[in-house]
Specification:
Length: about 260
């Protein structure tokens, strides 16, 4: 989950007041990058991400930036990472929980083979339809099975049929943080041994290391404990190998080993 509206903005502090302004602005873009330097993040975008970003993803990113909830979108560097990860694991059957306008969904669809599939779930179809024309123009809409509504009932239905166990190559979760533990309990049965689950926002604006009395936005404070609970659970789960990366707002990659 990351804001995209201020990616091109740079700050070069020349005095104490400017330095304070930069610190405040960095808090505003905290969900986009955990790097301490905004200029360094901009360097990554301009050197590695934007020159290689598919035109369809650029178009969807720019459309999403105009949406009032744009902080919910996947950052461009994370989209690039997901696209490469899916290719590295040769994923074909995938799932995404939390779609928003579909930037990460498009990154996945573009990386999949022609007969690849994505089961995509979100409670808001209207947001998905904002990006759907771009997804259709990119020629990958046929790979997506979109389901509107809560994900847990769908997951329970899938888990109830043992034929679905171990059938997913890659799963990406960027949804309600208070249900991440509930998702994991079900997804671990659905992902294959050697398959990958990616949980987004696992560093949660850096709040995971903040003292309890630190100033935080209300939604950051509310979900912080759920993120901390997930991180502890993943670290202790013997069924997976994990790697927590400071990409975007933090993403934890889980590889099922048994």
């Amino acid at each position: 989950m990351a804001t995209t509206t201020s990616e091109a903005t740079k700050t070069s502090p020349t005095n104490g007041e400017d330095k304070q302004s930069q610190n405040l602005r960095h808090q505003e873009v905290g969900h986009k990058s955990l790097l301490q330097s905004d200029d360094l993040y901009q360097y990554i975008l301009e050197t590695s991400v934007y020159p290689r970003e598919p035109e369809s993803m650029k178009e969807l990113r720019e459309v999403t930036a105009k949406h009032p909830w744009n902080i919910m979108t996947t950052s461009a560097d994370e989209g690039q990472f997901l696209n490469m990860l899916i290719k590295l694991v040769n994923a074909k059957n995938t799932m995404e929980i939390g779609v928003y306008t579909g930037y990460s969904l498009l990154a996945t669809a573009l990386a999949l083979p022609e007969d690849g599939k994505i089961l995509a779930m979100d409670v808001n179809r209207e947001n998905y339809e904002l990006g759907l024309p771009i997804i259709e123009k990119a020629g990958v809409a046929h790979k997506i099975d979109f389901r509107e509504g809560p994900a847990l009932p769908v997951l329970d239905e899938l888990v109830a049929d043992e034929k679905n166990h171990g059938t997913y190559d890659f799963i990406f979760v960027d949804a309600d943080k208070d249900n991440y533990i509930n998702y994991h309990k079900r997804l671990i049965d659905l992902v294959k041994v050697g398959g990958v689950i990616g949980y987004d926002n696992t560093l949660w604006n850096g709040s995971v290391v903040a003292p309890p009395d630190a100033p935080m936005r209300k939604y950051v404070r509310y979900y912080r404990d759920f993120v901390l609970e997930l991180n502890k659970a993943l670290a202790a789960d013997p069924r997976i190998e994990i790697c927590m990366l400071p990409v975007g707002d933090g993403i934890t990659i889980c590889r099922r080993i048994n």
